[in-house]
Amino acid sequence: MNRNRKLGLILFTAAIVLSILACGGGQPAPTETQAPPPPANTAPPPPPSDTPVPPPPTDTPVPVAPEATQPPAVTTGDERTPGQLNILSLNGFQDESDYWHIVGLIANDTERAVSDMEVEVEIFDASEASLYKEVTYPMLYNLAPGDTTPFDLWVFEELPGADHFTAIIVGQGSADIERAAVEVSKVNRIVDKYDSINLTGEVSNNGTTPLEVNGLAAALFNDAGELITAASVSVIQHHLEPGDSSAFRISLSAPKDQLESLTDYQLYWDTIVAEPAELIDFTLSDFYKYMDSYENFHLVGSITNNGTKNVSVSMVAGIYDGAGNVMDAASLSLPVYYIAPGETLPVDFDIWGPMSYTDDAFGKAEEFLINVDYYWTYESYSELVAISTKGDSNTFDADEAKFIGYVVNDSGKDLSGATVLVAIYEKGTDKLLATDYDWIFDDIANGAEAAYEVNIYLPSGLDSATVDYVITVVGELP
Predict the structure, then answer these.
(1) Backbone phi and psi for residue 323, each to the nearest 5 degrees, phi listed first
(2) Which of 83, 136, 218, 397 could form a disulfide with 250 if both were Cys (CB 3.0 to 4.6 A apart)?
């Protein structure tokens, strides 16, 4: 950790019918469904093995909703049947791109843990003709008894005449999980210039055993307690040893006329007890922040592997304001398959939310916290070899630096690809100012060459006469 001031079984099903809302304005739009995506660089946990998935319910009548006279039509969540999974608080809205979202909550009101749930959403016109039907998935994979998870079906196709929709649970599996508790603090709510509501905060493992965060989701409610929108986490550290803390970010779409008023939120966690990680001795350099000319935020520094194994590494960074509130979080994986023992590699956290998309964020950022995420950090058995370059040249302008040339496969073996990393340092020091890389995916025969191009977005006002640079090239063996 580096912190600086410089920065089951199916028993029953539940069905709900609701009218299409007009709270986002415009006509009902598109549909193609999208299961909630995991955060960049993050894959969903695998389903438990040897767990049969029961068949979907059959001959379950779907109640017909009365024709809506005025929006919003939202379930209150009061009608919950014990002993089954219940769909609660179903709603719909249009986002800033005029795409429809059908959102809802699934509550596990059984006495057993469930997983791998599927929800079928069907959209109808006013005469009950079906316009579209698709299966979507909740944002949390596991639900213990009493747990709740949101879901969100995205609708992209045009559906003229869309009037109302239904939702029914059509699949689920059983789960065998041991829950782990987390503590949440330093929560912040930020609306960015692209009309996303960002919920940021810090999650801590104050227990005595390691834990894994399989999932995190958030829902926003209006003043009447009605569900309006939900989203899964964009950035989070998935493995937390006892005493670990890390920043997270969830970015939610919402009706534009409710961006400022949606302040009531609920977080939903899927956390389980985990085995201790095999910790690696890493050293992190000082990290430095900058805004490039395209108003994108960067946090740059380096990582050194002091261990004895080739390691694939994932990292999470959090930015804090002077009051200790989390402003944003970002994650990355190294651009090469692994960092070797004794090796130092430059890194750039450059995919952010509010830090890049909120005008006054840069001046408020006073602290950062950087962790290695051991859920995605492990010994690598890939084979890399050092190769050389030729014909290297570069140009600097006010916005970016461009490095071009050729990689030369002088390894004595055929390669399946290569990676070129360029690091720009303050002249005469080891202070990293900026870095980026280029992946070459084509095979490179022994003795052959391949062109590369690395474009680096620079700190505003950087003078090329005050910098040094290092080009590092590695080839990947098949």
Answers:
(1) -90, 0
(2) 218
Contact 252, 279 (CB under 8 A): no
Contact 306, 212 (CB under 8 A): no
Rounded Cα distance between 309 and 404, Å, is 32
Task: Identify the domain boundary among 143, 174, 205.
Answer: 174
Flag whether 371 is in a domain. no
Sign of the C-alpha dihedral computed for residues 255, 258, 259 and 264 taken in this order: negative
Using CA atoms, how far apart are residues 236 and 202, in angstroms rounded to an integer?
Answer: 9
* pLDDT (tens digit per residue) in 162-173: 889 899 999 999
Q: How many residues does the chain have?
A: 478
Q: Establish if 16 belongs to a structural domain.
A: yes
Which tens digits make up the pLDDT trace of 380-403?
Answer: 999 999 999 999 999 999 899 999
User: For residues 273 and 264, what is the distance between their CA atoms, to the nearest angstrom?
Assistant: 29
Q: Which structural domain range is residue 419 located in?
A: 384-476
Encoding tokens for residue 361?
Answer: 């964020």
Q: Is there a domain that residue 347 lies in?
A: no
Which candidate, 166, 153, 169, 134, places its Cα nearest to that of 65? Answer: 166
- The two beta strands, 384-386 and 417-426, are unpaired
CA distance 230 to 273: 26
298 HSE (CA, 13 A, CB side): 22
In a domain, 411, yes or no: yes
Residue whose tokens read 């039907």: 133
Q: Would you tell me how many other CB atoms lie within 10 Å of the CB of residue 411?
A: 19
Q: Which helix (H) or strand (E) holds 363?
A: helix 361-364
Task: Provide the token pair at 73.
Answer: 């039509």
| Nearest to 401, CA basis, from 410, 393, 389 | 393
Give me the CATH number covering residue 415. 2.60.40.10
161-175, 218-232, 326-340: least confidently modelled range: 161-175
Measure the CA–CA gap between 235 and 251, rounded to whole angstroms: 9
Last residue of a domain, one of 174, 193, 221: 174
Q: How many domains does the chain have?
A: 2
Closest of 189, 298, 295, 297 to residue 252, by C-alpha: 189
Q: Where are the beta strands (DSSP E) in 97-144?
A: 100-108, 114-125, 130-136, 142-143
Buried/exposed code over 276-303 (b: 16+ C-beta within 10 A; e: otherwise): ebeebebebbebbbbbbeeeebbbbbbb
Task: Give 31-45 as a 3 state SS string.
Answer: CCCCCCCCCCCCCCC
